Predict the structure.
Amino acid sequence: MTSAIQRKQHLVAYGFILPFFAVFATMFIAPLAYSGYLSFFAHKLVGGAKFVGFENYVRAFQDPAFLFGLGRTALILLVQVPIMLGLALFFALALDSGRARGSKAVRLLIFLPFAVPGVVAVLMWGYLYGRDFGLTGQITRALGLPPTDFLSDQLILFSIMNIVTWAFVGYNMIILYAALKSIPSELHEAAEIDGASQWRLAWSVKIPMIRPAIFLTIIFSVIGSFQIFNEPKLLVEIAPTAIPQGFTPNFYAFNVAFVNQDINYAAAIAFLLGFVIMIVSYVVQLSMQKREVRW
């Protein structure tokens, strides 16, 4: 009798989760499997689509556009991500110290850029960057200085890094600020009674206590760096010579699929990009775990 009731409860439970798995399989697993299937084919002038095995993947490893895109993304990881997370941590610690006046308004202002739609943010910065029509160009001309072309070949990558930093500092700050708020107040009080300064309190107590949250923001930032798309896609209209088709791997996969009409090769690039993200995220996570063990 008991087993019959348990079996009925299990069936009811499966009935509740079945819609989720149906949607998950339809909207995620099926497109992914189809993309993987497409990546093993190539359209030939004679014969149409033919199975080519790993030929598209080998082609991607020999494609300078794809490799240069990966290189730019690696530069973003090494330069932009540390600056962004450093600013987010600094703002979170400053707000948590309770010594900043108008902390609620400041917190809202720092987080506000994340609430701005990505397309709107890029269009706004595109206007600000414009040498002939933008705000920075107008200010430098008013000061009698030569205008700086932030959309030139040499500066476009750093201009995009600036947009990403502006948009995501507040997002990461909120994660770190929430982690700081979960630290027991007794630790703060004990450190202050021992005469610890705010810097010492932050370095020796707060930052070690929020290490899991810091690691989380690093992983999110690694994944986000490989997904940069809006910025090159929109800025290419006003900086066509500075942003090539393979500016970032994500942007390159889009151009290959919908501009060059090579769906099979684009699917292979997308899968390779996914594997690269998994490998980099795993390496970062593994190194952080080893460092945590040493601490």
